[in-house]
Amino acid sequence: MTLNLNLSPDLAERLEKAASASSTSPEGIAITAIERTLTLWERADRALAPVHAAFEASGMSDDELADLINAEIHAMRRERRASESSSAER
Questions:
Q1: d(CA 67, CA 33)
Q2: Distance (Å, whole) CA 76 – CA 69
Q3: Residue 88: pLDDT above 70?
Q4: DSSP-derived secondary structure letter, 23
Q5: Please, what is the average pLDDT of the chain?
Q6: What does the DSSP assignment read for 30-65?
Q7: Of 32, 19, 27, 33, whose CA–CA distance to 3 is shortest?
Q8: Prediction pTM value
Q9: N or C end: fewer C-beta atoms under 10 angstroms in the chain?
């Protein structure tokens, strides 16, 4: 597969510097970066598969899940603030 990318001047410069520093071609650096990124995505996908399956089985909508996550985030922040306040008072 051939891929043509339009890189910003900053990213192109960073790619050239990385290639020069590692005695590799810019293409080699890009291929390595893509391979590493895809490997991380694949690992995350495998790790999250049970979560995705549980979400699908729950019948929850995306909006309901977002509301639940936001509520939990706010609850954790309240707990942390309360803990920090009680620690400061001691």
A1: 35
A2: 11
A3: yes
A4: T
A5: 94
A6: HHHHHHHHHHHHHHHHHHHHHHHHHHHHHT--HHHH
A7: 27
A8: 0.62
A9: N
In this prediction, residues 62-90 reach a mean pLDDT of 91
* CA–CA dist 1, 34 (Å, integer): 13
Please, is 70 exposed, middle or buried when counting C-beta atoms within 10 Å of its C-beta (0-12, 13-18, 19+)? exposed
Mean pLDDT to the nearest integer, 30-36: 96
What's the token pair of residue 58?
Answer: 């729950």
Q: Tell me which residue has tokens 């071609």.
A: 25
Q: What is the mean pLDDT of residues 32-47?
A: 97
Q: Which of 39, 32, 40 is nearest to 15 (CA)?
A: 32
- Residue ranges covered by each domain of the chain: 7-59, 60-90
What pLDDT shows up at residue 87?
Answer: 76
Paired tokens of 1 = 């597969």
